[in-house]
Amino acid sequence: MKVMGRRERLGRGTLAAIEITAVALVGAGLAFAQAAPPQKPLMAEEVFKNVRALKGIPVDDFMETMGLISAALSFDCSDCHTNAGTHKVDWAADTPRKVIARTMVTMVANLNKNSFGGRQAVTCWTCHRNRDKPLVTPVFETIYGEPTLAPDDVVATAQGLPSPESILDKFIQASGGAQRLAGLTSIDGKGTSAGFGGFGGGGAVEIAAKAPDKRATIILFKAETNRGDQIRTYDGATGWVRTPLNVLGEYQLIGGDLDGARFDAQLSFPGQIKKILTNLKTGSPTTISDLPVSHSQAAVQANTAAGKTYNVDVVQGNGPRGLLVTLYFDKQTGLLARELRYSQTPIGRVPTEIDFADYRDINGIKLPFRISYVWLDGRDSILLNEIKTNVSIDETKFGRPAPLKK
Ligand code: HEC
Ligand code: HEC
Asked: Does one domain contain both 109 and 170?
């Protein structure tokens, strides 16, 4: 049994990912960027050679399932794909573990169908919990040890709590009020990224957004000339990711990531927050804490926060196509401290967490200068040092990024 902490696993994953990129760049068969016609959704089985269990889902969702599987078992890609992280990797080749994993995908689908009325009640995480071989017997250390905070994805509504609208109104008020927010037409922030596990740190960041729903995050690595820049865009209809540290290099968002990108773009303009989610409900107030910061992050950004705990109000709502969003508002300030959003895949929900902190006043509107991202196979923390509002922003920034250089 491999005992490995999550942060370590993520660190290794990142390393593997970096080298995978090199493979993708030398054209070892995954030239997705060229193959992608902008509008037609590309299904996993059209891009990859040996997909048998996870057919019929867009490639970005397929890659998310790989992240879910890795996270559930505390594996990185190379544990199932021999030589992942080197030029010799053959993603399509079946390894013994990959074969087991495929049978487990089918097992989970059958369990949910036959025993839970088709609800996605069981996932890899249900049994595996960060281990390759699931535990079988209760462990005293767990039974009598400190409980860890592990909220249900779908929050339970409780009696006697303020309405979700009133919590959102408090946020709108705290952010500068409905009138000022209605006059917010664009945001342009500049700063640095901390990366994670020694990678992606020290990039020059620009976060640009245009009302009501365009957003781009551009990270330039000026010091590393052989490394492509990292770009995420959403232009109000389509979204793109260009992240060289990825099997695909550059790809269009089609699946759950597209809904997430749209939501983040809309949330950049908080005045519309009550319109962008449906089925709003209030969850029980709770506390949330910053995740521990890695040495590499602290080294790049000395003031990257660690260990701060907030008492929060909780609001949950739904977006399009199964997007589920939980928002945590700092009880003291009324401002948004955390967004936790989940997109749907055939083997479970994929979580993405974004923390907002260091709110400062820009022309009467409170905007976060520290934004920390956590997803299944990576983390990053962005510190802005300047935000301008209502400036004109070149439309091309929100469109498809320039292709990766070969
Ligand atoms: C626990 C085992 C396991 C881990 C860990 C894992 N995969 Fe997979 N991978 C699979 C299985 C199973 C399939 C085939 C799925 C199917 O048949 O539908 C697959 C298929 C793939 C394919 C398609 C290959 C082709 O051409 O058919 C790619 C690409 C891929 N994985 C990438 C990754 C990446 C990147 C990671 C790390 C983030 C990863 N995988 C982690 C089990 C794993
Ligand atoms: C109902 C519980 C359960 C669920 C759900 C489950 N597994 Fe498993 N899995 C097991 C058990 C039990 C074993 C160990 C079997 C053994 O001891 O031989 C195992 C073993 C494995 C192994 C072999 C690990 C090794 O020893 O190298 C892989 C890979 C795996 N599971 C992948 C998955 C994936 C991927 C999913 C989700 C699609 C999943 N499992 C969901 C119970 C589960």
From this structure: no
Ligand 2 mutation pick, 64, 79, 104, max ligand atoms within 8 A of CB: 104
Q: How far is the CA of 349 from the centre of ligand 2 (A)?
A: 18
Does any domain span residue 150? no
Tell me: cis bond preceding 212? Omega within 30 of 0 counts: yes
61/177 same-domain check: no
* 42 Cβ closer than 6 Å to some ligand 2 atom: no
Q: Distance (Å, rounded) from C-alpha 27 to C-alpha 30?
A: 6
Band of residue 303 on the pLDDT scale cut at 50, 70, 90: low
| Biggest alpha carbon–alpha carbon distance for the chain | 61
Nearest CA to ligand 2 atom 5: 124
pTM of the model: 0.89
- Is the CB–ligand 2 distance for residue 104 below 6 Å? yes
In angstroms, the CA 134 to CA 94 distance is 23
Q: Are residues 51 and 171 in the same domain?
A: no
What's the number of domains the chain is made of?
Answer: 2
Rounded average pLDDT over 86-115: 96
Q: Whose CA is nearest to atom 3 of ligand 2?
A: 127
Domain boundaries, position 196: 164-216+254-389
pLDDT in tens, 206-252: 999 999 999 999 998 877 656 678 899 999 999 999 887 677 778 89
Rounded-to-integer distance, Cα 245 and Cα 243, Å: 5
* Residue 238 identity (one-letter amino acid): T
Rounded to 10 degrees, the C-alpha dihedral 108/113/116/122 comes to: 20
Closest listed ligand to the CA of 115: 2
Buried b (16+ CB within 10 A) or exposed e, 61-73: bbbbbbbbbbbbb
Give me the DSSP letters along 130-152. Answer: T-SS---S--HHHHHSPPP----
pLDDT per position as a tens digit, 321-363? 889 999 999 999 999 999 999 999 999 999 999 999 999 999 9
